[in-house]
Amino acid sequence: MKQDQATSVRTSASAQPGHGFGTAPVFLASISTILGAILFLRFGYAVAHVGLWGSLMIIVLGHLVTIPTVLAVSEIATNRRVAGGGAYYIISRSFGTSIGGTIGIALYLSQAISVAFYLAAFAEAFQPVFKWVAEFYRVEPEPRWISVPSTFILIAVMLTRGAALGVKALWIVSAILGVSILSFLFGQGPDAIRPGALHLTDSIEGADAFGVVFATCFPAFTGMIAGLGLSGDLKNPQRSIPLGIITATLTGMVVYTLVAIKLAQSATPEALAADQFVMAQIALWGPVIHIGLGAAAVSSALGSIMVAPRTLQALARDRVLPIPKVNRLLAKGWGKAQEPVYATFVSGAVAVAFVVLGDIDFIAQILSMFFMVTYGALCLVSFLEYFAGNPSYRPTFNSRWYLSLLGAVMCAMMMIQMSLMYTLIAVLLIAVIYVGLRRTRKGERDLSAIFQGTMFQLTRRLQITLQKNQVDKSDGGWRPSIVAVTRFGERRLGHFDLLRWISHRHGFGHFIQFYQGDYSYSSESDARTHVDKLIERSDISGAGVFVDSLICPTFELALAQTLQMPGISGLPNNCVLLEFDKERPEEINETVQGVRLAAESNFNVLTLRSTNYRFGYRSSIHLWVTRENLANAPLMLLLAYIIVGHRDWRRAEIRLFACFNTGDAERETNRLSSLMTAGRLPISRQNVTSVDCADPETLETEVTHRSSEADLVIAGMNVENTESDEIEQLLRRYDGANDVLFVHATEKVSIE
Q1: Strands 653-660 and 620-626: what pairing?
Q2: Looking at the DSSP assignment, which residues form a beta bridge with residue 482?
Q3: Phi, psi (5° rounding) for residue 336?
């Protein structure tokens, strides 16, 4: 029943008829919000405190955030059919409600708080009236006497007349706004405040920091996506949204640049700082600036009060809010156009709460942070989606990935510049919202899907690059790229553990579970179920090992196919890891076949003879080097060094036993010690022991005597030109030891 209700809610959202507006309302809603209160009230303050050059830098930096965001939003908006909910709807339908809801909540708060900001600015337009009242009636009026009632009036208008009246009003206030700006640009201003010449860097003494000025002025540029809130009321949103918001953004940038130059040309920094209505002194007719401010503030507030409830309504229709009853209530719309009445009440309450605060600069800084978080997230998602290469992401308007990346980076930098504390709080809130939404939206597309696609593309490119630019092993340094094949992966963990220890940091491990039989869909399905359990085990142990399965009639055929596999890491595999149980003699024949095949294929062969001892306390590794397997010593030493680097072996001690005839023992021992010193291996000279081994029987005796309690024994094994029965005899050596790793090196490994 609940699912049916949710489906009907979403259906109604997508089928919302709206008003059928064209491109003009999108442009007007955006430009009237861009050319708002900051232009009239705070841009003179900006020029006074950071100079003309600093003000132009604020415009440039602000648009390095807003232009990439506009392009990213335009791209996302043309990827799917657009309905009501503006930026939230566009994002959520492209990237899922987990991402869309997170950005949507931040976007909604910024839109609702914007209403308070613009109405607080609207009250400032009545400063001449306040002075007159104070002079004649000896009463000091407060701006809240105007802003609070205006908020209620605006809410009442929206509740009774809806968006249709709001769009008509936009035409009127935009016309007034244009006349006010032209009056200022063509004005001269009194000679008393005019500077002697135009200076780029002049500012007042004790000026505010650039970050503070930027935070105060940045809301001036944030109105560019105000028109997105009308998405559900547009006849052709795929055309109107990009055209309307891009045109408004570029128009706003030009106007702000002209205003900054005009202010610096017409008044000194001191005059600009002393009078927030200095534009009225410069304009052809002073009162038009107050009228323009009122019109700008009303138009901006009108745009925000039209957009914010629609965003909240869309959030509720997608059940993003944590309380189901609240979602059902706020999702309701009235009339043919589905006006968001209840969402308007809530948005009005948020606006009233901030209007009561009254401090326009404080509201501006809070507003800047919310907008920065929203825009940074939009640019980041657009950037990641490009690299993910998702075939279903097919926008008709294409931005550029580097512009989206620039926007995301600029947002992060400017947030930190404005306030590190507010930045951390904002990022933490976004993270909390996202985690909360993920818990209720299992199985929906989220950030992991985007990152997975991005990592797929990155891995693909890296593998191709590595293949084209493979360096010589002696120059690039040897590292293990191991493929392990076993039929006992689910029942014996020693094989898997050894692979994860060797490949945890310095190498790469590919663990293949062999299933004997003929390939079929059902056998593949069963194998995948078992592999999922191995993947879970890998994740729990923090192995970082790639797990897969292989179905073949015989083990030898499975190994032959494995040896032909390309390296998952982008580098070719260079080692094969095999395993057999010491207590199961019947397993050794299969292992011998594998050793021969891998060695003949020029792979380094690592063969683990496992026992129930399971590496004991993981506190000691013994290496046994003989004249027959001296060539294996560098690889044996390097593997021991890599293993003890894992946290499971962090207390382990490595001991090396050099077994030679009496005449050669000391010389070879010194040579091995020099090799370890040159290679900076953590094996002290005291841990290198010379052992006189005249024959194999003596060697067996010494191993039993010295290494019977070792947690791992690493021994060399030379299998070149060796028959199968001889390899079997080699694998049965060192019977007095517990777990033994036999190493056969087919390549020269340097540890210098």
Answers
A1: parallel
A2: 509, 575
A3: -60, -35
Per the structure block, which two tokens stand in for 553? 């009639």
Which amino acid belongs to residue 473? Answer: K
Q: How far is CA 321 from the centre of its chain?
A: 23
DSSP type of residue 647: G
Residues 144 and 71: their CA atoms lie apart, in Å, by 38
Q: If you average pLDDT over residues 192-220, what whole number do you get?
A: 81
CB 32 within 8 A of CB 267: no
pLDDT at residue 389, rounded to an integer: 65
User: Alpha-carbon torsion 135, 137, 140, 144, what sign?
Assistant: negative
Alpha helices in 446-510 (DSSP H): 447-468, 473-476, 494-503
Within 8 A by CB and 6+ apart from 714, the residues are 621, 622, 623, 624, 636, 639, 640, 740, 741, 743
Question: For the segment 448-507, what is each residue's pLDDT rounded down to a tens digit?
Answer: 666 666 676 676 667 666 656 654 444 446 788 899 998 887 677 888 889 989 888 778
Rounded to whole angstroms, the Cα distance separating 249 from 34 reads 8
Task: Dump pLDDT digits (tens) for 706-732.
Answer: 999 999 999 998 888 778 888 888 898
CB 320 within 8 A of CB 98: no
**Are 643 and 681 in contact, with CB atoms under 8 Å apart?**
no
Tens of pLDDT, residue by residue over 525-579, are 888 887 787 777 777 776 678 888 888 898 889 899 888 887 766 677 889 999 9
Residue 360: enclosing H or E segment and its boundaries?
helix 360-388
Residues 6+ apart with CB under 8 A from 268: 193, 194, 195, 202
Helix (H) / strand (E) containing 93: helix 86-95
Most distant CA pair in the chain: distance in Å? 118
CA 298 to chain centre: 37
